[in-house]
């Protein structure tokens, strides 16, 4: 049990370790996590997807991975993850990194 408040740097550090399940890179590296706001025990962030039409199971897995990383840090955090679609530039960068990082 964590008795002190979890700091924003600790939260950001935990987020940077969340890895994509099929691409050998973190969600931060892939540009998928952005707009994180930490207000006390509330954490709000955006999960940017290359396309909104990806399977629901994949969306759910990615959101659960983010929530799990933060719960492992501090179970008292209230985490809100919103979904957004990458813009064309972000998508191009994501796809280039995905090609390099596919797990085989």
Query: Overall mean pLDDT score?
Result: 90
Biggest β-sheet description? 3 strands, mixed
N to C succession of SSEs: HEEHEH
> Considering DSSP H and I runs of 4 or more, what fraction of the residues is helical?
25-40%
Per DSSP, the total helix count is 3
Name the CATH superfamily assignment: Fe-S cluster assembly (FSCA)
Record the strand order, biggest sheet.
1-2-3
Radius of gyration: 14 Å
Explain the layout of strands and helices.
Blueprint (H helix, E strand, L loop, with lengths): L7 H8 L17 E7 L2 E8 L6 H18 L4 E8 L2 H14 L3
Parallel strand pairs: 2-3
Antiparallel strand pairs: 1-2
Molecular structure report:
- This protein has a 3-stranded mixed sheet with strand order 1-2-3, with helices on one face.
- The chain starts with 7 loop residues before the first helix and ends with a helix.
- The mean pLDDT is 90.
- Helix 1 (8-15) packs across helix 2.
- It has a single domain, classed as GMP Synthetase, Chain A, domain 3, CATH 3.30.300.
- 14% of the residues are buried.
- The chain contains 3 helices and 3 strands.
- The chain is an alpha+beta fold and 104 residues long.
